Amino acid sequence: MIQQQANMDWMLKDLAEGVPQTRHVVVLSADGLRMAQYGTDTDTADRLAAACAGLQSLAAAVGSELPHSDGRMRLVVIEMDGGFFYLMAAGAGAFLAVLADEGVDAGLMGQRMRDLVLRIGDHLSSPPRQDGVAR
Question: Where is the Roadblock/LAMTOR2 domain (predicted)?
Fold first, then answer.
Protein backbone atom coordinates (compact mmCIF):
# COMPACT_ATOMS: atom_id res chain seq x y z
CA MET A 1 0.00 0.00 0.00
CA ILE A 2 2.93 2.36 0.67
CA GLN A 3 4.12 2.33 -2.96
CA GLN A 4 0.58 2.89 -4.21
CA GLN A 5 0.15 5.81 -1.76
CA ALA A 6 3.32 7.48 -3.05
CA ASN A 7 2.11 7.14 -6.63
CA MET A 8 -1.24 8.77 -5.84
CA ASP A 9 -0.12 11.62 -3.58
CA TRP A 10 0.33 14.15 -6.38
CA MET A 11 -2.99 13.21 -8.00
CA LEU A 12 -4.95 13.62 -4.79
CA LYS A 13 -3.05 16.80 -3.90
CA ASP A 14 -4.08 18.31 -7.24
CA LEU A 15 -7.75 17.72 -6.42
CA ALA A 16 -7.46 18.91 -2.81
CA GLU A 17 -5.59 22.09 -3.65
CA GLY A 18 -7.53 22.79 -6.84
CA VAL A 19 -10.89 22.99 -5.07
CA PRO A 20 -10.94 25.45 -2.16
CA GLN A 21 -12.59 24.19 1.06
CA THR A 22 -11.52 20.56 0.49
CA ARG A 23 -10.67 18.82 3.77
CA HIS A 24 -9.98 15.13 3.09
CA VAL A 25 -9.45 13.04 -0.03
CA VAL A 26 -9.44 9.24 0.27
CA VAL A 27 -9.20 6.45 -2.28
CA LEU A 28 -10.66 3.18 -1.08
CA SER A 29 -11.36 -0.31 -2.29
CA ALA A 30 -14.90 -1.62 -2.64
CA ASP A 31 -14.48 -3.55 0.61
CA GLY A 32 -13.71 -0.33 2.52
CA LEU A 33 -9.92 -0.47 2.76
CA ARG A 34 -7.97 2.77 2.41
CA MET A 35 -5.69 2.74 -0.63
CA ALA A 36 -4.48 6.36 -0.52
CA GLN A 37 -5.23 9.63 1.25
CA TYR A 38 -4.44 13.31 1.17
CA GLY A 39 -5.11 16.04 3.72
CA THR A 40 -5.97 13.69 6.54
CA ASP A 41 -4.41 11.36 9.06
CA THR A 42 -4.50 7.59 8.65
CA ASP A 43 -7.13 6.98 11.36
CA THR A 44 -9.56 9.47 9.84
CA ALA A 45 -8.95 8.09 6.35
CA ASP A 46 -9.59 4.54 7.61
CA ARG A 47 -12.86 5.60 9.28
CA LEU A 48 -14.03 7.38 6.13
CA ALA A 49 -13.11 4.36 3.97
CA ALA A 50 -15.03 1.99 6.24
CA ALA A 51 -18.09 4.27 6.24
CA CYS A 52 -17.94 4.45 2.44
CA ALA A 53 -18.25 0.67 2.16
CA GLY A 54 -21.62 0.87 3.89
CA LEU A 55 -22.68 3.89 1.86
CA GLN A 56 -21.90 2.26 -1.48
CA SER A 57 -23.81 -0.86 -0.40
CA LEU A 58 -26.82 1.28 0.53
CA ALA A 59 -26.63 3.15 -2.79
CA ALA A 60 -26.51 -0.14 -4.71
CA ALA A 61 -29.59 -1.40 -2.84
CA VAL A 62 -31.52 1.77 -3.66
CA GLY A 63 -30.29 1.75 -7.27
CA SER A 64 -31.49 -1.81 -7.77
CA GLU A 65 -35.05 -0.51 -7.33
CA LEU A 66 -34.77 1.47 -10.56
CA PRO A 67 -36.14 -0.47 -13.55
CA HIS A 68 -33.13 -0.05 -15.88
CA SER A 69 -30.35 0.14 -13.31
CA ASP A 70 -27.56 -2.36 -12.83
CA GLY A 71 -27.37 -1.22 -9.19
CA ARG A 72 -23.86 0.20 -9.48
CA MET A 73 -23.30 3.47 -7.69
CA ARG A 74 -21.68 6.30 -9.67
CA LEU A 75 -21.92 9.26 -7.31
CA VAL A 76 -23.35 9.93 -3.88
CA VAL A 77 -23.42 13.43 -2.41
CA ILE A 78 -24.42 14.10 1.17
CA GLU A 79 -25.02 17.65 2.34
CA MET A 80 -24.87 18.15 6.08
CA ASP A 81 -24.41 20.97 8.53
CA GLY A 82 -20.86 22.18 7.99
CA GLY A 83 -20.12 20.60 4.64
CA PHE A 84 -20.46 18.02 1.93
CA PHE A 85 -19.38 14.44 1.42
CA TYR A 86 -18.80 12.99 -2.06
CA LEU A 87 -18.32 9.34 -3.00
CA MET A 88 -17.61 8.50 -6.65
CA ALA A 89 -16.90 5.20 -8.40
CA ALA A 90 -13.29 5.36 -9.61
CA GLY A 91 -12.19 2.30 -11.54
CA ALA A 92 -12.91 -1.37 -11.03
CA GLY A 93 -13.44 -1.97 -7.32
CA ALA A 94 -12.25 1.48 -6.21
CA PHE A 95 -13.87 4.69 -5.02
CA LEU A 96 -12.86 8.31 -4.53
CA ALA A 97 -14.19 10.02 -1.39
CA VAL A 98 -13.97 13.71 -0.53
CA LEU A 99 -15.05 15.61 2.56
CA ALA A 100 -15.35 19.37 2.05
CA ASP A 101 -16.40 22.41 4.05
CA GLU A 102 -19.75 24.13 3.63
CA GLY A 103 -18.42 26.83 1.29
CA VAL A 104 -17.12 24.40 -1.35
CA ASP A 105 -18.18 24.93 -4.96
CA ALA A 106 -20.19 21.72 -5.39
CA GLY A 107 -20.18 21.89 -9.18
CA LEU A 108 -16.42 22.40 -9.32
CA MET A 109 -15.87 19.51 -6.90
CA GLY A 110 -17.96 17.13 -9.00
CA GLN A 111 -16.19 18.20 -12.18
CA ARG A 112 -12.69 17.85 -10.70
CA MET A 113 -13.54 14.45 -9.22
CA ARG A 114 -14.83 13.23 -12.61
CA ASP A 115 -11.75 14.61 -14.35
CA LEU A 116 -9.47 12.86 -11.88
CA VAL A 117 -11.28 9.55 -12.25
CA LEU A 118 -11.20 9.76 -16.05
CA ARG A 119 -7.55 10.74 -16.09
CA ILE A 120 -6.28 8.08 -13.73
CA GLY A 121 -9.10 5.56 -13.37
CA ASP A 122 -6.88 2.59 -14.18
CA HIS A 123 -4.52 3.54 -11.34
CA LEU A 124 -7.45 3.74 -8.93
CA SER A 125 -8.72 0.21 -9.51
CA SER A 126 -8.46 -2.43 -6.85
CA PRO A 127 -8.34 -6.13 -7.74
CA PRO A 128 -10.80 -8.43 -5.94
CA ARG A 129 -9.56 -9.86 -2.64
CA GLN A 130 -9.52 -13.50 -1.75
CA ASP A 131 -8.74 -14.48 1.83
CA GLY A 132 -7.64 -10.89 2.52
CA VAL A 133 -5.10 -10.83 -0.33
CA ALA A 134 -5.47 -8.82 -3.57
CA ARG A 135 -5.51 -11.12 -6.63
Answer: 9-100
User: Does any domain span residue 134?
Assistant: no
pLDDT, tens digit (0-9, with 9 covering 90-100), for 45-93: 999 999 998 898 888 888 888 888 777 788 999 999 999 999 999 878 8
- The pLDDT tens digits for 22-51 are 999 999 988 899 988 999 999 999 999 999
Residue 37: give its domain's CATH number: 3.30.450.30
pTM metric for this prediction: 0.83
Q: Provide the residue range defining the domain that includes 92.
A: 2-128
- Kindly report the three-state secondary structure assignment for every residue of the chain: CHHHHHHHHHHHHHHHHHCCCEEEEEEEECCCCEEEEECCCHHHHHHHHHHHHHHHHHHHHHHCCCCCCCCCCCEEEEEECCEEEEEEECCCCEEEEEEEECCCCHHHHHHHHHHHHHHHHHHHCCCCEECCEEC
